Amino acid sequence: MINDKQIRAARAILQWKIESLAEKTGLSYQSLYNIENGITTARAKNIKIIEDVFHRAGIEFLPDSGVKLLSDISRIIHGDDSYLYVLDDVFHTLRDKQDKEILFSFICDSASSDLARQAEIRLRKAGMKFRAIGLDGDSYIVYPLREYRMIPAEYFLNNAEIIYDQKVATLIDNGHGAIITHSESIAQIRKNSFNFMWDRLPMPKMTTAQVTYE
């Protein structure tokens, strides 16, 4: 089980404030402060939550209180909340960046859960800009039509892809997992491919969604 020194060290490596860790874990600022400073002993359940958050961020905990950042450029996320995790990573990656554009490929708005929609709206409220490529003929569109281009069914893939900053996230296993790749060159390749499609695909003409968002 990880200790207070490892938690502080992991935060330092990621340049996270306690507030950021609290937001990601769902634990209170005071609880995390007390754990990090040895004031209280964390319950095993909370330690597991903290470990999972750091692991997803690319942190590896070593024996003898060691901590290191994984050198692999790709991380695999497992679980039904994988898309929510990706959206959270998008938020924390872009919120202090000048370029806040997010590119969504092979998306289906009707497949998003209420929680996913709330996470998407949080991104938009933070000033992040969307462009999306969806399935031609799918008229359930919840954001402004100008933000979409529609691709024919024979070229549509069931695995959505999200490109942001220097990262590419690909949903796998019917949304039950994701692969996040952090590579400037790979992200640029995917951005170029996206823009090539964007310039050639048609914009949708209508939406059948009862509720839409700006």
Please give a structural write-up.
There is one protein chain. With 214 residues, the chain is of the alpha+beta class. The chain has 2 domains: 4-69, 434 Repressor (Amino-terminal Domain), CATH 1.10.260; 74-198, 2-Layer Sandwich (Endonuclease, Chain A). Helices cover 37% and strands 22% of the residues. The chain contains 7 helices and 9 strands, in the order ααααβββαβαβββββα. The chain has helices at 4-14, 18-25, 29-36, 44-56, 82-94, 114-125, 184-198; strands at 59-62, 66-69, 74-78, 101-107, 129-135, 148-151, 161-164, 167-172, 177-182. A 7-stranded mixed β-sheet has the order 3-9-8-7-4-5-6, with helices on both faces. A two-stranded antiparallel sheet has the order 1-2. Strand 4, helix 6 (114-125) and strand 5 (129-135) form a beta-alpha-beta unit. The longest helix has 15 residues, at 184-198. It is elongated, with a radius of gyration of 19 Å.
Rounded radius of gyration (Å):
19 Å
User: Whole-number average pLDDT?
Assistant: 91
Distance between the termini: 45 Å
CATH superfamily of the largest domain: Endonuclease Chain A
Main β-sheet: number of strands, strand sense, barrel status? 7 strands, mixed
| Multimeric state | single chain
Query: How many strand elements?
Result: 9
Number of helices: 7
Structural class: alpha+beta
Strand content: 15-25%
The total tally of domains equals 2
As a percent range, the share of helical residues equals 25-40%
CATH architecture level-2 label of the largest domain: 2-Layer Sandwich
